[in-house]
Write a structure and sequence with these properties.
Shape: globular
Order of helices and strands: HEEHEEEHHHHHHHHH
Radius of gyration: 19 Å
Strand content: 5-15%
Oligomer: single chain
Helix content: 55-70%
Structural class: alpha/beta
Distance between the termini: 63 Å
Number of domains: 2
Number of strands: 5
Low-confidence stretches: 1-7
Length: about 240
């Protein structure tokens, strides 16, 4: 029985490039694409480390599978869909940012917004591609995307969680109607912070043991005040 089960399981393969290891099913991804992605991820890792002011040294493991719906990061392991790698839409830079800057004490809007902002920033600097999972044009277009969501009941539904605590119900089950506006609005608010307080402040906030006091100390304003200024700007630009 064990031999028959092994014969029916997809063969597992791995490739290594620098500090990146990619584990994949031979049925899900050709070796050439797995190797190319590993090299891309290795470059992205270096760029995110440089942006975050981290010394090189992190080793990441990517698990690439068929049928995976949501990309996730646990510890130093990142789970991605083979379809997204083949189509060059994998949010691998977003997940690398989560691994290197886990934002353990920050609210979800900041954690997701920061990872999305860094993904686009690294991409704009030539460190890889932006998955544009929920945005039309990364950092360049996220404010316009946010304006559109704010005019939509689905955007209004998640708005109370932006600049606040918690996540809206259904964020995992309903990626289009709940996750999309939440991620876009979070991304836009973090970009607003970055343009006014600087990337160095964003990195310090990601590492802060107490997010709200750190935000006020580093920027002179509370999350509620930043949220109000951001909403006024985004709505005016719509």
């Amino acid at each position: 029985m064990k031999a028959r089960r092994a014969e029916t399981e997809p063969a597992r393969r791995l490739v290594r490039r620098g500090r990146i290891t990619v584990h994949y099913q031979s049925s899900a991804l050709p070796r050439e694409q797995a190797a190319a992605f590993a090299a891309l991820a290795a470059r992205g890792l270096r760029e995110v480390e440089r942006l975050a002011g981290l010394p090189p040294g992190a080793r990441l493991r990517f698990e690439v599978r068929d049928g995976t719906r949501i990309s996730t990061a646990r510890g130093r392991t990142i789970l991605l869909s083979s379809y997204r790698i083949v189509s060059s839409t994998a949010p691998y830079l977003h997940e690398i940012a989560h691994v290197l800057l886990p934002c353990r004490r920050a609210p979800p809007w900041y954690s997701e917004g920061l990872a999305s902002y860094i993904e686009s920033l690294v991409s704009d600097r030539g460190g890889g591609y932006d998955s544009r999972l929920f945005t039309s044009d990364g950092n360049r277009g996220v404010d316009a995307d946010a304006s559109r969501w704010l005019a939509d009941p689905r955007g209004q539904h998640v708005l109370p969680f932006i600049g606040s605590r918690g996540t809206p119900r259904g964020i995992l089950a309903d990626r289009y109607n709940v996750a999309a506006p939440f991620y876009v609005l979070s991304h836009s608010l973090v970009k607003f912070l970055a343009e006014r307080a600087g990337i160095a402040v964003l990195i310090r906030l990601a590492r802060a043991k107490r997010f709200s006091p750190a935000l006020r100390r580093l920027t002179g304003k509370s999350a509620a005040a930043w949220r109000a200024s951001w909403l006024e700007t985004v709505r005016i630009s719509s």
